[in-house]
Amino acid sequence: MRNGKKQIGIIVPAYNESQNIQEFCRAVLAVIEDLSRFDWKIIFVDDGSQDNTWEVVCDQTRFDPRLSGIRLSRNFGKEVALTAGAMAIQEADALIFIDADLQHPPELIPKLLAEWEKGFQVVITKRLAIRYSLVRKIGSALFHFLINRFSEVKLEPGTTDFRLLDRKVLNVLRTFRERTRFFRGLIDWMGFRRSCVTFSAPDRTGGNSSFNLRRLVSMAIHSFTSFSLLPLQLTGILGILTLAFTSLLLSYMVMAHYILGYTMFTALAYFVVFNTLLFGVVLAGLGLVAHYIGQIHVEVIDRPLYIIQDQIGIEHTERLNADLRIPSTY
Fold it and tell me: Using only C-alpha atoms, what is the Rg of the chain?
């Protein structure tokens, strides 16, 4: 708290968002001008953009001292970029995470703060409607059903990364060290007092979304396996069911051959078919086990979660790097 004012940080992950940064800054600065009872710090996290996003961020910081930026050495993914932002402002009383494409309306910031001032420690936002393709809608519905039904975390459909976190929540979040992370899932897993604000998502002001189908599927798999053992359990269940079905069928084959006298199929034919089926079950099980072992491998090798290449307007370089076990020369 500075000068008796609480400090609020705004974390803005950006990947190839050079077309949106200036408009985003205008929109956010216009909103916070009416919230002078708080001290503000806005940090852009350039997640290894391939365009001139970092140059645009640097240009914007020259116009307002409340703006600053971090540039990661490569594209680590949005979940890690959000974490980098959370690590960057250690002294904030609350952080607001918002996308740079203006699909998270900055006009909602006063509502988030109002809920926070009521005592809520996590204020999430939920989209009332957004134009998705049919495939993405079905995939999203299936993902939420599976993760809510078979994992220890409960996710409400339609919620976004646009949310406010209190200092107490952030202090806990900063202790998490897993590399494969699902930001919303971690926050929902923690609990705390929470409130929800709804909004309608506008269209992007420029550029294209970096979340194509491949990246969304990958994120869904990593998120689901981070919070649920269901895939491994399903493999065991499938193996038991296959064993039971095969046993019944073999019993029928013996009865049909020796009691009823049927000779429609030879024993070898049945053996080949179901041996192939069992082989498929084994391969599926090995694939799932390999996925979990792969995640264990990523955690055990203990590489830095991210690497900062450049920064502007950030005061805690040494502390930030020390927390991540990165030499201060980065």
Answer: 25
Nearest-angstrom CA–CA distance, 79 and 182: 6
The whole-angstrom separation of Cα 44 and Cα 68 is: 6
Q: Which among 75, 46, 19 is positioned nearest to 310, based on CA atoms?
A: 46
Chain centroid to CA 139? 16
Q: Which CATH superfamily is domain 7-211+305-323 in?
A: Spore Coat Polysaccharide Biosynthesis Protein SpsA; Chain A (3.90.550.10)
Rounded to whole angstroms, the Cα distance separating 231 from 229 reads 6
pLDDT digits (tens, 9 = 90+) for 188-220: 778 888 888 888 766 555 555 555 555 555 555
Alpha-carbon dihedral 45, 111, 128, 17, rounded to 10 degrees = -20
Enter the pTM of the model.
Answer: 0.67
pLDDT bin (cut points 50, 70, 90) of residue 9 is: very high
